[in-house]
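If I may wish for something, please sit down with the protein I am sending here and say whether tokens and residues agree:
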Amino acid sequence: MAQINTCLKRTFTIFNIFFAIVGGVIIALALLCQILTNVEGRENLEGRTSSLVGLYLFGAITMMVAILGAYGAHKESKASLVVFLVCMIIGTLLMLRAGIPTAIARPQIEGILEQKVQEFLPLDESQPDVQNMANSLQTAMHCCGLFSYRDWRKNIPESCSCNPEEEVGQCRNVEYRNFIFQTKSVYAKPCFPILMHYILLFADILLGIVFTLAILALLGLVLSSIMIHQLRYPSRPTVLLSVPAIFTPAPPKYQELHNPPAY
């Protein structure tokens, strides 16, 4: 005989299907990031491997926990639901632990990155991998230099070159001295503000995902707690709200005789 409410069981199953889809999306994003970084030749970026492994593990664990919860609800396994409940508690705490400091530090991201990027200047004397990264950004984002074309000093690369006839309003003419004074048309916008726009957008999306997962984990915690309660006390229905009958009049202690019999 089923001990868990059928409607609750279906709701919990749908919840776990959605949770498993979220885990699959995280794995797909990790795979996409790996492919894109391989195409761009950035396999040796610092922290790339650990970040990808973390995404793969997080997605896989999310899918496994979702499957465990769906199995526990379908089989009405108390042990599986207890393990799922513990995972939801840990997940909620981890999401809040990661999301709250990130939300607090978000306004400081631009200043921290600007100080870090300043260490790469001037670009014409930086490491080859930094120059390759800058050239890739300039080609993809149609910009020149991190903060200005002057970051390259007198050695402005071809990735900064802009065609005024094809890219109207995006170019500017600069004069620099190589052997003789020359004029070159380069992209007017620097790369750092454009890069910061995408970094802050990514941070906002990441915060949204983290707090969404925290809410989902909290919802899973509540649903699994209710099912565990129903399995522990199968003879008691789970009462979410009860109103005491305080408005029902009590019977009178005595009744007055209006027409007493004649003696």
